[in-house]
Amino acid sequence: MPDAVRRFLRVLVPAVAVAIIIAGLWPQPSVAPSAAERVDTLASNIRCPFCGGESIADAPSQIARDLEAIIAEQVAEGRTDDEVYAFFEARYGESALMDPPLLGWGWVLWVGPLVLLAVGGYAIARRRRRTGTPVVVGGSPLLERRRIEDQLAQIAVDLGELDGQVAAGEIDDATRFDLAAAYEAEAAPLRDRLAVLERPPATTADPSPTPTGPDRRRALIGAGAMLAGVAVVSFAVVRMADDGRDAIEVPTPPPIDFENVTVDELENVVARNPEIVGMRLALAQLYMQEGDVSQAVVHFGEVLERERNPEALAWLGYISFQVGELDSARNYLTEALTRQPNYPQAEWWLANLLYYGYQEPAEAVPHLETLLAAPDLPADIRAEAEAMLEAAGGTG
After folding, report:
1. Angle, CA of 190, 191 and 192, to the nearest 5°
2. How far apart are CA 182 and CA 188, in angstroms?
3. Is residue 282 one of the residues assigned to a domain?
4. Do 223 and 306 fall into the same domain?
5. Do 89 and 182 lie in a common domain?
6. Single residue among 79, 99, 119 that ends a domain in this structure
7. Are residues 46 and 131 located together in one domain of the fold?
8. Which of 49, 128, 228, 268 has the highest CB neighbour count under 10 A?
9. Percent over 90 (pLDDT), the chain
10. What is the dihedral of CA 152, 157, 159, 165, to 10 degrees?
11. Residue 330 CB: number of other CB atoms within 10 A?
């Protein structure tokens, strides 16, 4: 084949391939979906908060139909899909969506993990290729060690002054808790660095010297990015390991008075400490006391996103029972008792569900008997449970 023809083909073939790809990716004119089709699509992508994880479109309950009617009203009002999703997220939390939609910033949730995985792999690969002697940070190791020890001593002093500041009214308990956590977070890397400085130097026979300085930081950053890419979550871990020296005593913050705290105050505490399940449970129960069931469901659901907590399961079972979702209520309450046997509150709610909801008094008997065996049962609950047991033909 002549050289001129070869050169022409080398240009033509890639050009044709690119043209075919562009033609395939070029947006084609499409017919706008009807209002009914939009409602069906939106309902398929939004989770029913009372239906055991099913979408609004798939759930057979009446509350799911009510939520679907709300979607239809918003579509009729001219709201966009993003606005409808935002409406449900604002009321039921991020878990309201079945999957993060590839809309607006939603693409970050899909592409971000892959990018972090690639960056982490690259950083670790570079770290594995690097060799050489460790880098001494800050000049003399002795001077750096003294500087770190001074910083740790100052942090210990600052921690010790927090109680006095609370007593003087300069800060509140919540601020004290946050400051103590911040001081400890500042101290943790300093203790790690001090442990590295105190470690005996590696001999020439050691084929893998301890990474320090920039190399160590690159390895840690790479590992962190890998974990973030795989788990799509960043975990902040404060280590309090004993390094052979006197440990810094961190005073335990005083407990929060949940009886007198307001919803707004507890919301702020939970926002600062989102991973503390006990605080979120207290907030959800406070919303129940205020009669705001929808916000309570949001926080009980957030608890279950982190762990299958028996208390959150029992409360969601009770709420499902109240709105007529008997099967979901039974599933929640049964799981609560599986994870915490003889849990009085769950036993009582499940007994009521079986007795009054399913109209099956005989199935309620073992739960009533277990409940009545519990110590310190409130007198009114005990009297009602005994009457139910007697009517159901139980032994008592």
Report:
1. 90
2. 10
3. yes
4. no
5. no
6. 99
7. no
8. 49
9. 21
10. -160
11. 18
Does residue 239 belong to any structural domain of this protein? no
If you average pLDDT over residues 318-344, what whole number do you get?
A: 91
Print the domain residue range for 221.
109-200+211-231
Q: Is residue 237 part of a domain?
A: no
- pTM of the shown model: 0.41
Question: For residue 386, what are the contacts with CB-CB under 8 A and spacing of at least 6?
Answer: 372, 396
- 59-77 residue pLDDT tens: 887 778 888 999 999 999 9
Question: Please, what is the angle between helix 107-129 and helix 213-231, to 10°?
Answer: 150
CATH of the domain at 371: 1.25.40.10
Paired with 47 in beta bridges are: 55
Are both 283 and 375 inside the same structural domain? yes
Q: Are residues 59 and 121 in the same domain?
A: no
Give residue 239's Cα distance to chain centre. Answer: 21
CA-to-CA distance for 202 and 269, rounded, in angstroms? 46
Q: Residue 368, Cβ neighbours under 10 Å: how many? A: 27
Query: In the listed set 78, 99, 120, which residue is the last one of a domain according to the structure?
Result: 99
Question: Mean of the per-residue pLDDT values for the chain?
Answer: 74
Residue 55 carries which DSSP code? B
What's the number of domains the chain is made of?
A: 3
Is-contact 100 113, C-beta < 8 A?
no
Q: For residue range 344-389, what is the model confidence (pLDDT) as tens digits?
A: 999 999 999 999 999 999 999 999 999 988 888 888 899 999 999 9
Do 125 and 93 lie in one domain? The reply is no
Q: Rounded CA gap, 91 and 299, in Å?
A: 11
Q: Compute the distance between CA of residue 282 and CA of residue 54 in angstroms, rounded to an integer.
A: 26
Residues in CB range of 159: below 8 A, 6 or more apart: 180, 183, 184, 248, 249, 250, 251
Q: Answer yes or no: do 92 and 130 share one domain.
A: no
Position 180 pLDDT exceeds 90: no
Are the C-beta atoms of 55 and 45 separated by less than 8 Å? yes
| 253 within some domain | no
Angle between helices 277-290 and 310-322 (to 10 degrees): 20
Of residues 169 and 9, the one with the higher pLDDT is 169
Contact 275/287 with Cβ under 8 angstroms? no
